[in-house]
Specification:
By secondary structure, the chain is of the alpha/beta class. The chain is 37% helix and 21% strand. It has 15 helices and 15 strands. The strands form 2 sheets. The protein has an 8-stranded parallel beta sheet with strand order 6-7-8-9-10-11-12-13. A hairpin with a 2-residue loop joins strand 2 and strand 3. The structure holds 3-[(4S)-2,5-dioxoimidazolidin-4-yl]propanoic acid and fe (iii) ion.
């Protein structure tokens, strides 16, 4: 039986849903063929006739699915450290945004940035994530806020997915905030009548997102955006209940959203609606940390309701200039009370689910992409325990 590569003496954290916990298999083997997992199980069950030109003994090291960062705004121009200093001196995010800073500050920088600049700066940030074993990243638009720049951002994201050894999933977030000097109704018509149809027709976006918040768009406005997304066959996700309970989680669930993200202010009704719809909760402790939030998402209620929990960096220049998914796992455990198992699942299986890609990535199961992370640790908890240590031993993308 011929494979391309076989890893032996591994400890596999399969995250296979039918296995308990993280689906750990000790003294395991994993074999790949044509970029796909062809065997993942006890070495004793590997066929005796298994052959491969390359066979690696891992000496018991941990192997997880490649990490998945399912919520980023990683393509953008400029940076906002000056705003960060203002916030350290007592200014708050919402008042900076209302004064024309915040997202709009990055919109001005992104509109002025050449494609090459956006590519170079995003590549540098993506490399930091890949250095920690990330094999798939979701990239949102949302700093263009006009048709040409929103589409340009999505094209840059697609180009990054072609140029780098990395899976890239794109999301149109034109409904991020109202662009300056623009009529609300006119901009929403531009989103629903031009941006979504073109992003769909040109296959630039895999989903549509929005920011449902008092400093951005109302539930009624987001509903119109989601109706247009549905009309053009695009799934939706939502920045929901981040700074206030605007009913975002329930609105996301109403449209069977892939995910509702942030959720610091989500109430019981929103949790129940998400559970009914199968909408994934994407928790973003990086933004919680940078905004000095005091109210954590309703993790216990989400857990009781069986809502899947995913984690992501939310990498963006304003509320989460975060380039470490391992740090996010630690923050989620320490600040939000997630278990080690929940944090590892949150950046693998559940992150894949939040992207609608669980059939292809997110677990170590036969037939899935051979996206793997090999760790120089004895226990999975060591991935969450350290701050500032990167124990990645090897990153495998598509079996290579
Ligand atoms: N919520 C956030 O935390 C980011 N966007 C959003 O909808 C903030 C983006 C920024 O401040 O640039
Ligand atoms: Fe975000």
């Amino acid at each position: 039986m011929r494979f391309d590569r076989i890893w032996r003496h591994a400890t596999l954290a399969t995250l296979a849903p039918q296995r308990p916990g993280m689906g750990l298999i000790e003294s395991a083997a994993l074999a790949v063929a044509n970029g796909r997992i062809a065997f993942a199980g006890p070495m004793s069950e590997l066929p005796a006739a298994a052959r491969a030109p390359e066979q690696i003994d891992l000496g018991g090291r941990l192997v997880t699915p490649g990490l998945i960062d399912c919520h980023t705004h990683i393509v953008f121009g400029g940076e906002r450290s000056a705003e960060f200093e203002l916030r350290l001196a007592g200014a708050d995010y919402a008042s900076i945004a209302r004064a024309g800073g915040g997202i709009l500050s990055t919109v001005r920088a992104t509109r002025a940035a050449a494609d090459e600049t956006l590519l170079i700066t995003a590549t540098e940030r993506l490399q930091a994530l890949m250095d920690e074993g990330v094999t798939t990243v979701e990239i949102k638009s949302g700093y263009g806020l006009d048709v040409p720049t929103e589409l340009r951002m999505l094209r840059v994201a697609r180009f990054l997915g072609r140029r780098l050894p990395l899976g890239v999933v794109t999301t149109l977030l034109a409904a991020h905030t109202l662009p300056p000097d623009t009529d609300r109704a006119a901009y929403l018509s531009e989103i629903t009548g031009e941006l979504i149809p073109r992003a769909s027709a040109e296959r630039l976006a895999d989903a549509v997102d929005g920011f449902c918040e008092h400093i951005a768009f109302t539930a009624t406005e987001i509903r119109a955006v989601f109706q247009a997304a549905r009309a053009h066959g695009l799934p939706v996700k939502l920045h929901a209940d981040q700074l206030s309970d605007g009913g975002g989680a329930a609105l996301a669930a109403e449209f069977d959203a892939l995910s509702a993200d942030h959720l610091e202010w989500t109430g019981e009704a929103g949790v129940a609606a998400m559970a009914r719809a199968g909408t994934v909760a994407v928790l973003l402790p990086g933004a919680f940390h940078y905004l000095r939030e005091r109210r954590i998402p309703p993790v216990a209620a989400l857990r009781r309701a069986g809502v899947p929990l995913a984690l992501a960096t939310d990498c963006n220049p304003g509320t989460a200039p975060v380039l470490s998914l391992l740090t996010v796992m630690n923050l989620a455990a320490v600040q939000f009370g997630l278990s080690v198992e929940e944090t590892v699942a949150g950046v693998t299986r559940e992150a894949a689910r939040a992207l609608g890609r669980l059939s292809d990535i997110g677990t170590l199961e036969v037939g899935k992409r051979a996206d793997l992370a090999i760790w120089n640790v004895d226990r999975p908890a060591e991935l969450v325990y350290w701050l500032g240590r990167n124990p990645l031993q090897g990153r495998i993308w598509g079996g290579r």
